[in-house]
Every structure is written in C-alpha cells, then in structure tokens.
TrEMBL record:
Signal sequence annotation: none
Family note: Belongs to the isochorismatase family.
Keywords: Hydrolase, Metal-binding, Pyridine nucleotide biosynthesis
Name of protein: nicotinamidase
Organism: Nocardioides cremeus
Pfam families assigned to the protein according to its UniProt record, in alphabetical order: Isochorismatase (PF00857)
Length: 191
C-alpha cells in the first residue's frame, strides 16, 4: 500500500486575520507543520506517508462564488485572490515538503482538491495514481467545506481515505458535525 497526505487550503485567508477566517486555522498550520517536520526527519515516530501534497484556492474571477453580500453557503467574501498575501500558505506552515501543489478555482468555486491541477497540468487523482498511491490521509481547512469535498472526491476516485480530524478546523460546529457524519457515511475513516 502506498499512502499520501493531502493538506487542504491552509492559506492565510482561511486563518485568523484573513478575509474568511476559520477559528483554529493558525493552530492547524502549526500542527501540520510539526507533523511534516517529523515526516521529513524520518525514524520510528515519523508518519508513514510515501508522498505529501497540498491544495490551494487560487481565484482570479470565480464568478458568483465571490460576493459583496455573501450568503456563506454558496457565496463568500473575496478570498485567496491570485497575487495576494491571502492566497499564500500560512507562515507557520513550511511548504518545502510538498511534492506538488494543486491550484483550484481560477474561474469557478472548486471546493475539492481533485478539481485542481499542478504546475504540469496534472490533476490530483492522476498525480496520485502515477505514483501508485492507494490510500490518502486528508487534513486542513475547512472541515465542512473544502476538506469535506476533497475527502469525498478521494473516495469517489477509489482511494482508501482517512480524515485526520485533529489536523482540521471547521467553519461552524453544526456544519462540521454534519460533514463528519457525511464523510463516514461515504466510507471515509474519521481518525
């Protein structure tokens, strides 16, 4: 079995101080960074991933996804705009270990990392399959939106999928609880 970690959207705009902050986003960045440092160092305590990748919201003009009067269900304040600091990874998350970053949502909403492409134009599913990955761990922001969509698409693409819930933060308790139930119902192991 070959396992990969997918780190979803740990970007400045989704952390405290950003345009669409998730409470606990900065802590997720620090916790993921600490785990990646263990992985890079190796040894018996290191997580057992063969590959580590990340996703980023990467919006140029996502249409109705952005709104000056957002409903926070299908429309949102401007966030992760290409060329802004808000699009960058949180400063407490060193992106060096990422083998690839999948950018999504240039001209559409694109919640799932499986909608993104790397610098070579590969989709996340194709990138993983080319490396023989059969199992994925998913973490990041936000549990009830992009993490949920990415994990559901991972299962739909045939990957054994585990959500690392301690390395996630959600927008709201109700929607996060509903997302976790939905993920389990679709075969995602919630760790």
């Amino acid at each position: 079995m070959t396992r990969a970690l997918i780190v979803v959207d740990v970007q400045n705009d989704f952390c405290e101080g950003g345009s669409l902050p998730v409470t606990g986003g900065g802590q997720v960045a620090r916790d993921v960074d600490a785990l990646l440092k263990q992985w890079v160092a190796g040894g018996p305590e290191a997580p057992g991933w063969d590959h580590v990748v990340a996703t980023k919201d990467h919006h140029v003009d996502p249409g109705e996804h952005w709104s000056s009067e957002p409903d926070f269900a299908t429309s949102w304040p401007v966030h992760c705009e290409v060329g802004t600091d808000g699009e960058q990874f949180h400063p407490d998350l060193d992106p060096t270990p990422f083998e690839a970053v999948f950018l999504k949502g240039r001209h559409e909403a694109a919640y799932s990392g499986f909608e993104g492409h790397d610098d070579d134009g590969a989709t996340l599913a194709d990138w993983l399959r080319r490396r023989g990955v059969t199992e994925v761990d998913v973490c990041g922001l936000a549990t009830d939106h992009c993490v949920r969509a990415t994990a559901l698409d991972a299962v739909a693409a045939g990957f054994d999928t585990r959500l690392l819930s301690q390395l996630c933060a959600g927008v709201a308790p109700e929607t996060t609880t509903a997302a976790l139930s939905d993920l389990e119902a679709h075969g995602v192991q919630v760790a």
